């Protein structure tokens, strides 16, 4: 995937993804539902090679899990009761590589600011799936 920043600098990203959902999972889902989303960057791709002298490279490695858990809460009568909640956990490592490109300060700042947005988009997508 190739995208452009507001000043015209191009950024490229090439990832593979794996997803899995289990209605019942004793190992990771505590007997309940468990979902896994993971992605990793492609280091070399003969079909779509990176162009480091023209584009900033955006390498992302991420893992996101979703599962149901029980939590205790006080009801209106002041008694403890259980409710199901969705727990989402995410870990992400992002590397920005601009080996062959001189980046002005403003561009480097824009790149750093955009890094966190990738995780926000991933979270928004999971929320859409969960709340369907």
Q: Label the structural class.
A: alpha+beta
N-to-C SSE string, H for helix and E for strand = EEEEEEH
Write down how many β-strands occur, each being a DSSP E stretch of 2 or more residues.
6
The helix count comes to: 1
End-to-end span in angstroms?
28 Å
Radius of gyration: 20 Å
Mean pLDDT: 85
Residue share in helix:
10-25%
Low-pLDDT segments, ≥5 res: none
Shape: elongated
Strand content: over 45%
Summarize the biggest pleated sheet.
Answer: 6 strands, mixed
> What is the number of domains?
1
Describe what you observe in this structure.
The protein has one domain (2-130). The chain is 20% helix and 45% strand. It has 1 helix and 6 strands; from the N terminus they run ββββββα. It has one helix at residues 105-130, and strands spanning 2-4, 10-12, 15-22, 34-41, 55-74, 80-97. Strands 1, 2, 3, 4, 5 and 6 form a 6-stranded mixed sheet that branches. Strand 5 and strand 6 (80-97) form a beta hairpin. The two termini are 28 Å apart. The mean pLDDT is 85.
């Amino acid at each position: 995937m190739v995208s452009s920043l507001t000043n015209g600098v191009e950024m490229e990203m090439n990832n593979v993804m794996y997803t899995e959902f289990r209605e019942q999972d004793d190992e990771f889902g505590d007997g309940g539902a468990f979902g896994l989303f993971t992605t990793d960057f492609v280091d070399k791709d003969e079909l779509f090679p990176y162009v480091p002298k023209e584009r900033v490279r955006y390498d992302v490695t991420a893992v996101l899990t979703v599962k149901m858990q029980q939590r205790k809460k006080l009801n209106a009568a002041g008694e403890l009761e259980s409710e199901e909640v969705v727990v989402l956990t995410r870990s992400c490592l992002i590397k920005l590589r601009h080996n062959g490109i001189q980046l002005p300060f403003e561009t480097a700042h824009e790149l750093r600011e955009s890094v966190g947005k990738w995780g926000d988009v991933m979270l928004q997508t999971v929320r859409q799936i969960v709340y369907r």
